[in-house]
Amino acid sequence: MQQRIRNHLLRSRVLTADEAQTFIQDGMTIGVSGFTRSGDVKAIPRALVDNIRKTENSRQIHLYSGASLGDADSWLSTQHVVDRRSPYQSDPDTRQGINCGEIRYIEQHLSHSAEWFRNEHIDLAIIEAVAITENGGIIPTTSVGNSPVFVQKAKQVIVEINLSMPESLIGIHDIYIPENRPFRTPIGITHVADRIGTPYIPCDPNKIVGIVMTDDPDSPSKIVAPDEETQQMAEYILELLSHEVKQGRLSAKLAPLQSGVGSVANAVFSGLEKSPFNQLEIYTEVMQDAVFQLFDSGKVSFASGCSFTLSESMRDHVLSSLPRYRKQLLLRPQEISNHPEVIRRLGVIAINGALEVDIYGNVNSTHVRGTHVMNGIGGSGDFARNAGLTIFVTKSTAKNGRISSVVPFVSHVDHTEHDVDILVTEQGIADLRGLSPRERAKTIIENLAHPLYKDALRDYFERACVQGGNTPHLLDEALSWHHQFKETGDMRKPVSAMM
Ligand code: 0RQ
């Protein structure tokens, strides 16, 4: 206890999770720690839903976080506790609540969310920590997310001290909070490993109204191991990077790398293990399993991020080996890990997942058939717009070939054609830099589309070109593939075939 709560006055504020959940009142706005299933609060959300089940004293809250929580997102959504949710989520039950209109979901670029919360009223912050310092400073666990803003803004703070998180996490965080808008000075990160803040989130001890001791581990990520197709995509990207080095646009250690969430992005990073590149640096938000595989194979010299999101076996390995990794690791608040200024300065190579892309290079990362949210934009937009090289990856088809991920027009735009340099599917790679829209269309159709859909895309593009324009389209047909899938369950089956 003394090591974990170093401010002796605060030791008297230890509560049970059930006592702590009584601070959560109907209608409150609550900021919680947690970013892509890691470093999230666990004991208090569980106690809250248990209490609601037992007493039927239901409460609805505005729930803000860094990004997705672990199981807590599911518990809170299925118990109908969440009225408003922001920013990124990835939980099936939350997704269902959002798509049926019950949860009001606000998607924000992750770097923007801190600025928005800074202007919001936050009633209560609940933050998972390894320890509290003598002066009340909160030392986060496996993610930082938006916790510094929540602690700054909230009237009251409750801390969950997680005893399953090793004390060797202390020292890996770098908490820098930009102040004094609009007179801010440049963010002083010119190298991936630069430290510019404190190893804890500053907090007035008087604000800490309760401390709950817990030992629940982070919910493991559900990442799927690389398969033949994702490995193929990784190879295309490695060939591209080798080409960039030969052309003198990148050095042999490349530029700092970012990878998004998801199986494909993780597989691409795994592919770097067998690459000729060494001394790699990572400037990202989420560190998935592959980052630590790259550490273990000696490929990476330093990684800066906002969270670890790991499978169960990798989580256990990383937490028990932290003394070995900690000199090469940093966790930052998401407004810094995703800050446009820093991403642009470092010339990051950004690799993110797409649901679908269109023939001109617009990318949909978030909405199935343009309406139903999958996960949220997360930080993909922060990186896509500001990176030195912006790459999106997707398999060329989904749902056993019934959906083409290369379509005439994306049904929802997250990343415009102006933000996208390179697209990759298992069919090939399309380098769009310097190409006009019509050149882009030809390259995307020929290099990326699955053979099942290539002729139909060629046909659409040729007929659109007859109508003219810089970016030719047939507006009455542009979204017909999505409509066909909705009606017939297959993008290749016309609606008339069902009549
Ligand atoms: O559905 O789960 O029902 O099987 O989408 O698809 O191919 O497994 O791809 O795991 O790499 O995720 C865009 C979602 C890709 C992810 C996305 C269906 C497919 C499957 C997943 P099932 P895959 P991945 C960093 C940056 C946005 C946020 C981001 C993502 C499921 O990369 O969330 O990058 N990105 N943030 O069947 C309908 C299509 C489809 C489709 C695939 N065209 N239409 N469904 N699917 N293509 C992290 C943060 O910022 C926090």
From TrEMBL:
GO biological process, one term: acetyl-CoA metabolic process
Pfam family, one: AcetylCoA_hydro
Alphabetically ordered keywords of this record: Hydrolase
Domain Acetyl-CoA hydrolase/transferase N-terminal: 14-212
NCBIfam families: YgfH_subfam
PANTHER family: ACETYL-COA HYDROLASE
Record's protein name: Acetyl-CoA hydrolase
Source organism phylogeny: Bacteria, Bacillati, Bacillota, Bacilli, Bacillales
Name of encoding gene: cat1
